[in-house]
């Protein structure tokens, strides 16, 4: 009976995705939900023969996954991944099903799976991964995740449900690093041993107090947010020494970063082919994953200069000689890092912010008032203008007005087709900062108007 249920579920999933994509849609979630109705434990059955690395955490999951994928490609490892970012149990199940035979035998020996933080507690139990990478824990979508301690607990449960996994934890994140206290798993700490920005925006820390005794942390250095060299002066809780660490930031601009990463005492000069300090962290976590999976550090280091970014994650569109870079944001920490990244700009640019409040974005948009948009004003003439779009464009426009953006530099354009035309009507680079569903909608418009691939292709 179980084999029949698996057969029906896999066939139904494949057919549903085929039908949805025939209609020009992604088919990333519904096929999995259909399959799970027919066989609730389908994911566990399909994952039995697959060696899986799971990437979870608040920020950086998709990019870190793409980095790990490139190291698999360079190592000649046959794998599949949930590239579309469908990281709930239904989306992950769909990816396993479409990469399996009708009888439920997966066609690939390895998988790179991005998992939503809340979903991870169940995903880890069903998949039993070989390695888990936890990127960080930040405040994100309070209406869905709650406070950071709730997110941290979801990840903790997922790790306890993954007893065989080697766990890669961010040493610089006092929240993530604390997970090691309760684990019997082998733990690899990774981190950044040096500041990564010349100047930083003003940020509200999501974890200013010791997770053990609630005293205020003292920092020897800060990279961004609450990440850095923290220590508690009262109970002694402190940043652990990372086994994989960024020792130097040689250069960082709007196209890439060059860093030195140490692994077991050996140093590797690494070119990270995406800009932004947060991508330096993603690169470091990918190097840690390589250690967990016993890949050669020099191979992983090389792969970081060659990987393709995930859709909307620093994705660059060159259209008729114009440069548009799309940078997904979803919370204050990530948004502030975009602003930190823009401080490396050396030529004038147009800034675009697209704000939605659908369920996948988070209904509560009050977080935009915790972002240091005032940093844009400090850039003077480098900022040629600001355009706001999306469902909550007017709210974002109000935030920019309070930040001090002059009225003559601020425009509201809610139609994405018109927005694209406005971006291409000037000869400056354009940096577009959308929330998740705004990114999907805008990217679909760009794909249709200018011939780019759809996000699931």
Characterise this structure.
The protein is α/β, with parallel strands linked by helices and 457 residues long. Helices cover 35% and strands 21% of the residues. It contains 16 helices and 17 strands. It starts with a helix and ends in a 7-residue tail after the last helix. The model has no long low-confidence stretch (mean pLDDT 92).
| DSSP strand tally | 17
Note the gap between the termini.
35 Å
Output the number of helix runs: 16
- How would you write the strand order of the largest sheet? 2-3-1-4-5-6-9-10-11
Radius of gyration: 22 Å
Structural class: alpha/beta
Strand content: 15-25%
- Overall mean confidence score, pLDDT: 92
| Unreliable residue runs | none
Overall, the morphology is globular
Task: Report the sheet with the most strands, covering strand number, pairing sense and barrel closure.
Answer: 9 strands, mixed
Keywords:
alpha/beta; nine-stranded mixed sheet; 457 residues; six-stranded mixed sheet; single chain
Secondary structure blueprint with pairings:
Blueprint: H1 2-22, H2 30-38, H3 42-46, E1 51-56, H4 61-75, E2 79-81, H5 89-98, E3 110-114, H6 120-127, E4 131-134, H7 142-145, H8 148-160, E5 166-170, H9 174-177, E6 187-192, E7 218-224, E8 227-231, E9 244-252, E10 257-263, E11 266-272, H10 277-292, H11 297-303, E12 313-319, E13 322-327, H12 332-342, E14 349-354, H13 374-377, E15 383-389, H14 393-403, E16 410-412, H15 416-424, E17 430-434, H16 436-450
Helix pairs in contact: 1-2, 2-5, 4-10, 4-11, 6-8
Brief write-up:
By secondary structure, this protein is of the alpha/beta class. The chain has 16 helices and 17 strands.
